[in-house]
Amino acid sequence: MVVVACPHCDEGMELPDTAEGLFECPHCDEEFEWDNLDRQAHDPMIQPRDFWIGLLVPFLATCCGLVLSVILVGDTWDVLLWAFLSILLCPILALGMVIYGYMNGRNLLWIGASVAFAISALLCLLLVFAGL
After folding, report:
1. pLDDT of 30-77, one tens digit each?
2. pTM (2 decimals)?
3. Cα 57 to chain center, whole Å?
4. Which terminus of the chain is more exposed, N or C, with fewer CB under 10 A?
């Protein structure tokens, strides 16, 4: 069963998982149309923005760390340490989001975070090997 909010009165009602077609609200007696695509759009476990959140949040956190390290530390050699730590933040944050998304059943979140983890891990490896 899925709980659906009536588009007219916003009252909740239960419908079968495979319900499609026209339904009458028991609260306001208005008709509305419901199909599986609507169900997926309202399902909190299937949100398309989760992929982009999982993909972009680790990179944005790293960019903020890099900018703050330059602004706060300045032109000293310490900026290299803080920049390196900011770059390491990306795969660590992505891995945490992968675990969180997987444990909570948010598939698109952990898929997006997995892509971010793979990209950031490759970039970190390139950075390490470029320094050798």
Report:
1. 888 877 655 555 555 556 788 899 999 999 998 898 888 888 887 788
2. 0.60
3. 8
4. C
Q: pLDDT digits over 82-122, tens only?
A: 888 888 888 899 999 999 999 988 888 899 999 999 998 88
Residue 24 · residue 31 · CB < 8 Å: yes
- Tell whether 65 and 102 lie within a shared domain: yes
Residue 81 CA to residue 121 CA, distance in Å, equals 18
Spatial CA neighbour of 53 closest among 130, 129, 116: 116
Task: Domain count for the chain, please give it.
Answer: 2
What residue numbers bound the domain in which 95 lies?
49-131
Nearest to 83 by CA among 67, 60, 94: 67
Q: Tell me, what DSSP letter sits at residue 43?
A: -
How far is residue 85's CA from residue 121's CA, in Å, rounded to a whole number? 14
Task: Report d(CA 104, CA 51) in Å as an integer.
Answer: 14
- Are residue 78 and residue 127 in the same domain, yes or no? yes
38 plus 53 within the same structural domain? no
